[in-house]
């Protein structure tokens, strides 16, 4: 996964989930209705990758200003940071149900604003609205499902929310592909998100509030009536007693550590166990984002165009593969995370990510080095005043190739007979683009024709395969296990904020980095970040597989060290 939490569930729990929901369909109705929030979360974070290609065609200022493209993409992430914070307050004050309804309203308003946007600033405004909805949905949907599910199948039901997020991202690529030939293209792509928001809003109106929230508000009878719909009659009283014990413990924790952020932060930093837990939890969240995953999820078609596939439709079709692999990887993680452990899965994942990023860097470097040369006659005689101004004033124009042309903010009109042969370097105008295409030649403005392009797509796919089962899902599992019970919500929240902020930094700088360092240098930079992340994971993150929370706490109390750096105990020395 890219964002959001994952609750682990084994095959036994999924089997029990199927049996329970078959007997009590109301439970699945609750989970799927709330889970639409996860679907919207995934859709709205993924859809912009394809829509951006067509927004650039409609607004020349967006096409020419890299920072404007980055702002359009990243404003949803910025909105999500504030949406998560606001959602946390709203969840506690007004309940989970109202929070989901407000998130739906934000999703719908954002989708309509973007679909009708007459200018880029309106798209940005719509992305902020959508981001607020994403932030609220990212925490409220799994919380509602968790609190409205029987304990024995809770992990399986909450896991469906994670699958719906990656499923939403995959759906966004399908929708993008479906509307490539429709009038309005990007307006439909962005506007479609309003439909599921309306569906969820209507469904949630007929569903109850979370029984846990009602119980905390002393609405015991209302909580009981909901539990009666979820549990068999002979289990309702036991669940009420368990709910009472859980709520009482939660209130006691709040009194012990304080109910405001400053008090909790002081308590956390003053507690060695929590502090070491935060080292691990924050490390894996920062490493997840600086692996560059959201450059792929937000800019995948653009990266494919960097590799030399000029067609928007082709770029989106190839990007669909990476999104599908991400969804499959989430399922694979559930099968292996309890068998091989969290730490090992992340370390193996990081080695794979680093290898793929280094190879991608080499591929893009080779593509740039072997880009088609510029045909001087074709460039200067294509049309009146058509030649790229920088090419005309260059001291050594004979050394120019397609990549030199694109770096000068000009367009490359490929050779009509063979696009790998020398072509024309022309000024970046819509008229010249149309003229080039009118001569049955391909217009390149983001990447150059390259025989290495297919390798970039292959290794983008391998990157996702190695990322998704490990660094995609495991950081969220680690954060659900690494903190003492009374600090679990606070610790997970702090780590999630680091995740969102790093997500914002990466999405807001990717295109600028590619301009400054080139695609090759940018992927190599992310590989360097991953090496640092790997070292930190090795040093700070313990294995929590199969350990009780108390055992994790005891391990952190004495201070975790990697096995290679621990002093051998007498029992270790005596063992063969």
TrEMBL record:
Superkingdom of origin: Eukaryota
Bilayer-spanning residue ranges: 30-55, 67-86, 98-117, 123-145, 157-179, 185-207, 315-337, 343-365, 452-470, 490-511, 523-541
Gene3D superfamilies according to UniProt: MFS general substrate transporter like domains
Subcellular location, principal: membrane
Domain Major facilitator superfamily (MFS) profile: 30-545
Keyword Transport: yes
Topology class, membrane: Multi-pass membrane protein
A cellular component annotation (GO) from this entry: membrane
Cellular localisation: Membrane
MF GO annotations: myo-inositol:proton symporter activity; transferase activity
One GO-annotated biological process of the protein: myo-inositol transport
Alphabetically ordered keywords of this record: Membrane, Transmembrane, Transmembrane helix, Transport
Family of this protein: Belongs to the major facilitator superfamily. Sugar transporter (TC 2.A.1.1) family.
Name of the protein described by the UniProt record: Inositol transporter 4
Classification lineage: Eukaryota, Viridiplantae, Streptophyta, Embryophyta, Tracheophyta
């Amino acid at each position: 996964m890219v964002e959001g939490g994952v609750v682990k569930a084994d095959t036994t729990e999924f089997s029990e989930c199927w049996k329970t929901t078959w007997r009590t369909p109301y439970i699945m109705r609750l989970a799927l209705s709330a889970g639409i929030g996860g679907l919207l979360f995934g859709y709205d974070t993924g859809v912009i990758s394809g829509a951006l290609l067509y927004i650039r065609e409609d607004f020349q200022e967006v096409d020419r200003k890299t920072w404007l493209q980055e702002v359009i993409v990243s404003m949803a992430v910025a909105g999500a940071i504030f949406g998560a914070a606001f959602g946390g307050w709203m969840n506690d004050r007004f309940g989970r149900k109202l929070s989901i309804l407000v998130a739906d309203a934000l999703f719908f308003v954002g989708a309509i604003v973007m679909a009708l946007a007459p200018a880029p600033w309106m798209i940005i405004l719509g992305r902020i609205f959508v981001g607020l909805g994403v932030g609220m949905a990212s925490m409220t949907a799994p919380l509602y499902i968790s609190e409205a599910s029987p304990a024995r199948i809770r992990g399986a039901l909450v896991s469906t929310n994670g699958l719906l997020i990656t499923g939403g991202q995959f759906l966004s690529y399908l929708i993008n592909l479906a509307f490539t030939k429709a009038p309005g293209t990007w307006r439909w792509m962005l506007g479609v998100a309003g439909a599921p928001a309306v569906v969820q809003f209507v469904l949630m109106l007929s569903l109850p509030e979370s029984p846990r929230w009602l119980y905390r508000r002393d609405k015991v009878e209302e909580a009981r009536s909901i539990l009666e719909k979820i549990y068999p009659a002979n289990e309702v009283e036991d669940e009420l007693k368990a709910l009472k014990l859980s709520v009482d413990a939660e209130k006691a924790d709040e009194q012990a550590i304080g109910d405001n952020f400053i008090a909790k932060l002081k308590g956390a930093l003053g507690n060695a166990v929590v502090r070491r837990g935060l080292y691990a939890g924050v490390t894996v969240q920062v490493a997840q984002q600086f692996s560059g995953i959201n450059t792929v999820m937000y800019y995948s078609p653009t990266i494919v165009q960097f590799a030399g596939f000029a067609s928007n439709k082709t770029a989106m079709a190839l990007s669909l593969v990476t999104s599908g692999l991400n969804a499959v990887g989430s399922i694979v993680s559930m099968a292996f995370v309890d068998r091989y452990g969290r730490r090992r899965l992340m370390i193996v994942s990081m080695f794979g990510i680093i290898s793929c990023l280094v190879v991608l860097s080499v591929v893009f470097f080779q593509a740039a080095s072997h880009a088609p040369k510029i045909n001087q006659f074709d460039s200067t005689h294509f049309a009146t005043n058509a030649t790229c101004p920088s090419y005309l004033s260059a001291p050594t124009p004979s050394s120019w190739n397609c990549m030199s042309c694109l770096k000068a903010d000009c367009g490359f009109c490929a050779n009509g007979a063979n696009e790998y042969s020398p072509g024309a370097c022309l000024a970046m105008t819509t008229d010249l683009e149309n003229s080039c295409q009118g001569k049955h030649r391909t217009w390149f403005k983001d990447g150059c024709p390259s025989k290495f392009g297919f390798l970039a797509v292959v290794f983008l796919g391998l990157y996702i395969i190695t990322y998704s089962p490990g660094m995609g899902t495991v950081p969220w599992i680690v954060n659900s296990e690494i903190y003492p019970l009374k600090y679990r919500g606070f610790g997970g929240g702090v780590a999630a904020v680091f995740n969102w902020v790093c997500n914002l930094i990466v999405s807001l700088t990717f295109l600028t980095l590619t301009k400054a360092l080139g695609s090759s240098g940018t992927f190599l930079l992310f590989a360097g970040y991953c090496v640092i992340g790997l070292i930190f994971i090795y040093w700070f993150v313990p294995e929590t597989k199969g350990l009780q929370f108390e055992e994790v706490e005891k391990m952190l109390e004495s201070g975790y060290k990697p096995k290679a750096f621990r002093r051998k105990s007498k029992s270790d020395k005596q063992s063969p």
